[in-house]
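ARCHIVE RECORD
Type: protein–small molecule complex
Small molecule: 2-aminohexanedioic acid
Source of inputs: curated submission
Record status: active
Notes field left blank by submitter.
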Amino acid sequence: MAPPKVYKNFINGEWVDSVSRESFENLNPANHGELIGLFPHSTPEDVNRAVAAAREAFRCWRLMPAPKRGEILYRAARLLQERKEAMAEQMTMEMGKVLAETRGDVQEAIDMTFYMAGEGRRQFGQTTPSELANKFAMTVRSPLGVCGMITPWNFPMAIPSWKIMPALICGNTVVIKPAQDTPLSTYNLVQVLEEAGIPRGVVNLVCGFGREVGVPMVDHQDVRAVSFTGSTEVGRAVSIGCAPTFKPVCLEMGGKNAMIVMDDANLELALEGAVWGSFGTTGQRCTATSRIIVHKEIYPHFCELLVDRARALRVGNGLDKSVQMGPLVNESQVKTVDGYVQIGKSEGAKLLTGGERLADGDHASGWFYAPTIFGDCQPRMRIVQEEIFGPVVSLIPVGSFEEALDVGNDVVYGLSSAIYTRDVNKAFHAMRDLETGIVYVNAPTIGAETHLPFGGVKQTGNGHREAAITALEFYSEWKTLYIDYSDRLQRAQIDNQ
Ligand code: UN1
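STRUCTURE (tokenized, with ligand):
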């Protein structure tokens, strides 16, 4: 057998081992006997080196004209386009989701990189009249410095790009810790940036685990802002870590996204959306549809048809073109999902299909789980309230549109929601009243585009929005400039009365 491929960290423009010289394994979730590669098991000292490099690099990078920074991003986007297929395959091998989806993940990184490259020629500020004569007033965006990033395994290239690209175009430098389950896709992204000509130290990759890499990065005094996507539990710890020094922190956390299906909906469309929203990415999206709130008039019929479709899904290795749903990312995720299935059963929800690990035949050496549907769920059940992050969806019958909205809003999260109806009045009421950062009409809860703001309300986030122009709000600070050309002392609020 060929020796496993050994990957390195990227610090100060060089590919280097961790000071620990230890490594961890990146396994294929569809076949966990297959080792994708060994990645550096980094230490706080590696973080220190990366932050020092990023701090030093910031001195020049912030002064490079933003359109020039954009040119590097354009080159990176074109390289990603060229390598899309190979990168998608590698992503399926380390993360599990099917090829169509990993191509989408790489495409999302391409879109974001092009989009932010263009922001190099925008980043508009404001000019406004001063209250005093012969005085000029304007605002400019100013970078923050070294930005620390902690990213999840479910979108291992797209989500790093949501953070890295806006940070760079604004003139910040970056230290990123990718999820330990999927470091290769982020590695590939960083390598492309290197080839595109990113100056040394501007982007640094430190692989490893939360305790040895994430925590020291959050605590580091030279890290000026932190962006985190992941669980609510870890997000809370990151937020607390940033509090003592008032470090700006962007948190993108859990979801419990509802799809409402009204009795006037196009049923075929709603079913298709329900399957894609619930079982796409094996349910491992923060935007996944995990509750389906169905009007009682169509509830029995809807349940039956949805169950048929879930049963027909082909689960397997995502590299196989006929497969529609890949494995879960790791063993611990299988245990969590199965734990929730047991909770659902004990709470009295009706298991309509699935509810078990798939471990026979083609599934024997992967972390596979059957598409699972619970029927007759009550809004306060734990399986309806808590994020499961797996192929498990709960169906909740309701008697009216108003009840559907109340049930939809009755969770601590607020990322995404969807309504299927042909009634324009109901659609507009839902758009206004659903307490989520994203609302879809006649489309499932997944499928955000890179030039629109992404983020959630309530315990999903802390008020920031990733992607779109809104990302610049986090990665830059406004600087207000007054230029007095009167040649005398003019006192605001005093001399103009
Ligand atoms: C996530 O769910 O973690 O909107 C990100 C979507 C994708 C991004 C999802 N474009 O489903």
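CURATOR ANNOTATION: The chain has two domains: 9-253+461-480, 257-441.
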